[in-house]
Amino acid sequence: AQKVTQAQTEISVVEKEDVTLDCVYETRDTTYYLFWYKQPPSGELVFLIRRNSFDEQNEISGRYSWNFQKSTSSFNFTITASQVVDSAVYFCALSPQGDNFNKFYFGSGTKLNVKP
Amino acid sequence: EAGVTQFPSHSVIEKGQTVTLRCDPISGHDNLYWYRRVMGKEIKFLLHFVKESKQDESGMPNNRFLAERTGGTYSTLKVQPAELEDSGVYFCASSPGLAGEETQYFGPGTRLLVL
To answer: Between chains, do A47 and B103 touch, taking CB under 8 Å as contact?
Structure first.
């Protein structure tokens, strides 16, 4: 089965706090991609990062960092020193590279509220 | 470069009516996808076009949904007749279709409410 679980439905933090959004995935495919998207109040899904299953290196981009661990099937996303503009719904997605390799499987999203 | 655009942004219709959603992908993207998010749940795949051909329509809920992509450019998704459970946000995405270019770029979605 292909599945993505984002157990945190909603998180509220105060500006400048660090926050980690969890993503756990299930797949039998050995080759797959993982993604994070941000959905601000305007509604569009904004691409943040793509990771392939063979690259477990963590990545940092400014205040954003991603921790990919195949051993626990997790791809967690941390925002350091959060800002009000980070308030959005964040989606984790899985793209298995098997038969239906163009189909994305999304989690249900985590709504992040950053309060000033 | 323009992103994926969708029209309309919102639609409110009554049960039994017909609604047609439109998606314009990023210019030059051969792959076009439709997804749907029902209230608070995960975003679910509906179907995938490669140019004008349906590559995978395994996610289409039933035969009340009809998707087309004439000429391999824009796509339409028609719901006829609409039912209450069709309410949700319909997202369109596109990707170039090249190896190493698996990222899908999404539009803002169409919010459909069936009353």
So the answer is: yes
